[in-house]
Amino acid sequence: MTEPTNRDPVQGGQVEVDAPTQEPGGYAPSVAERLAFYQRAGGVVTPLITVILAFFAGGLVVLATGHNPLRTYQAVWAGTGLNWFFHVGNYHIDIPFTGHHVFFWWNTDTNGLAAYNLTQTLILTTTLILTGLAVAFAFRCGLFNIGGQGQYTAGAIVSVWVGSSWAHMSQGLHVFLAIALAMVAGAGLAAVAGFLKATVGAHEVITTIMLNWIAYWVGSFLFGRGGPLQNSADISVPISNDVTPSGKLPVLWGNSDLQALHVGFFIALGALVVFWLMLNRTTLGYQVRAVGYNPEAARYGGINVARNYVYAMAISGAFAGIGGAADILGWQYRLGVLDIQVSNIGFIGIAVALLGRNTAVGVGLAALLFGALVNGTSTRGLDASIFPPELAGNLTLMIQALVLLFVGADVLVLYIWQARRHLRLGRRPAAPARPEGTA
Amino acid sequence: MNAFAGTVDRYAQTPRRVAWAGIVVGTLAFWLALPPVQARAPWVPIVVGLLAVACGIWALTRDVGRLAWGAVAVGLIGIGLGVLATRSSTGHLGSVVTWGSLIGSTLVWATPLAYAAVGGMVNERSGVVNIGLEGMMLAGAFFGCLGADKFGSWEMGLLIAAAGGAGFALLFAFFAIHLRADQIVGGTAINFLALGVTGYFFIQVYGQNGTPGDLPRIPNVNIGGLHEHTFFGDAIGHLNIMIWASFVLLIVAHVGLFHTPLGLRLRAVGEHPRAAETVGISVYATRYVAVTISGILAALGGAYLSIGFVGSFGENMTAGRGFIALAAVIFGNWRPFGAYAAAILFGASTALSFRLAVYSDAASVLFQALPYVLTLIAVAGVIGRSIPPAAVGRPYTKQ
Fold this sequence. Notes:
heterodimer, A: mainly alpha, ABC transporter involved in vitamin B12 uptake, BtuC, 2 domains, two-stranded antiparallel ribbon, 61% helix, B: ABC transporter involved in vitamin B12 uptake, BtuC, 2 strands, 2% strand
């Protein structure tokens, strides 16, 4: 499932697990480089172990506070809507834009709870794929973009502004314009961090944190009371104007009054493909990865490192910006100050990218996992008689945190990985070379 | 080397002083338009501001660079704000700018930031980036409430808060130091974890009703003889114990960091861990201590927020203050007085933003972005570069 790193031109056809150098004063290993180390070790197994450990620890908290973890996780599972796939029967599906319908194995009627929950999970997955890609792309260039949240907000602000203006535009053009401008907004915000990194060497983590909060307050200002983009109907409510019908994304599945799955889902899947193609089949992608593995070597090889920093950040921001637009034009249709202030979908993107090992397929699967988890523990998804959703939302945060903690700890992951190898030592004579300095 | 620096100093001295004077005069341009002087004629700030710009330009021709640009900027901003102030009604000005209470509320808003910023500085000086300050503050806010409530005293509240902060810090330290996890990923995880843990136990313990109204609060120090509605009475007459303690903390941090062997060791570990280890300093132990101190201090800042100032706990009540504290560390150039001054500046911007609401709600909201914008400018190197400890953010492998 992971990208075949052993065929990587930069790596010289070898899978090498080597600890980054630690010489102070000399060349400083970037965040991405250190995590790339984790990324090369352990295949699919380590993310799985990570997730299992995190869920296990979360279960312990549930148990310690007097709830039944098994029943809780069962209820969360039901809340995700993924159980829908297990109810196979004889149903039919409508063919869009025609009166016909054909045989289908699953019941697509969203009046059913499972189908409805699944649409909600997929709505979240859509956004998480995009915010996850925003982290992952920068990461492959050796940059840690924790500004996904701000770039998402910038995209949401611009798309709600475009979507609620120019009501007489044709739908296709309106939607395209709103998404394109949201993309530019996200890219622009991220490019600031890339530019500062490239020119004065300002650490992108610090600058993206600052930009996150600038986006947060600017958004609160724009749609807040007396703000320039506040709605014109009721000035006591700090919220934007509604997106006009021509600016809405077409509904794919479900009833649009109750938040239906929108075609943004396909935009996100398309973004995964674009991400993969861009990284693995273009010159830009090659350069980005080269810089990510070793900026000094890339510079020596004639690659303009500074320019790649700016490009990589801009492309990252563009993904997050589309994410913001997808939420606004797909199901939210308006943006309130509260929406901006409570949103943390950009931060979950960090966990998505790291758990998905910054590869296209991995990000897609991790986004589905976190989308399901967030929806399964939401007030709407979770059966409140089994476990209070207010607690469950916080449980999700804890599980996310634990995933991040374990993902970041390459030594721990390697240890588990090698313990697994130890078990199979009888069949595999050559144990992997232990990286220098992990002893 | 020293002789060289001395020569440069002697030549640079006068233009630098003029540039500094320009900055002071630029500030004066704005100040003159405010109470108590409150010049109503727009030419007053313009003339004084232009004087500041002139100082800056003169210094620019003498190769002072950034400081001179600073003087020009302050002069122009002084003109702009000064003219705005002369346009605003005296009633509004009077309600926004009452220096005594403005200073008082600046200290109130700055104190949580100051604790976390000094903590963050200690920990960055040891070579560990702590993005998790926000989470540790939040933990302090919640456990402070819990301790004060369950044991019925604010002292226990502070103690439990410190223990909570230290707990999160130790977890972070274990992953960041021993397991050599990436510090930024670990810090982000700590933020999520603190948000989840405090939110979970807040609802588990207090349910939907929130913390009880009769929480024991950290008391204020009422200085006899300083009456309300006087300058000193409003400014320092009724400050919380924690605010006074933060002054002590500042002195201790400065002396500890720059005038004791322990502080030297701490800085050595942050600048060149291998060299430090070579002379027998334990890098791991030093970093553990530094991270734990930062967790305790951030938690005390959070506890001041919950049981000192607000008197209750709400989910995610720190709302980004940990990140402002992080910004203060950077803006303050990784020095105790610098970090504290930055905390005061950011506290003042918060205090002022609430008062600006009399002019416009929207403007007061936008004003809250100021700390982040200033920090962005500072790291961009426009006004003096911020230079972090050399080994910050890099895990150390024992030899």
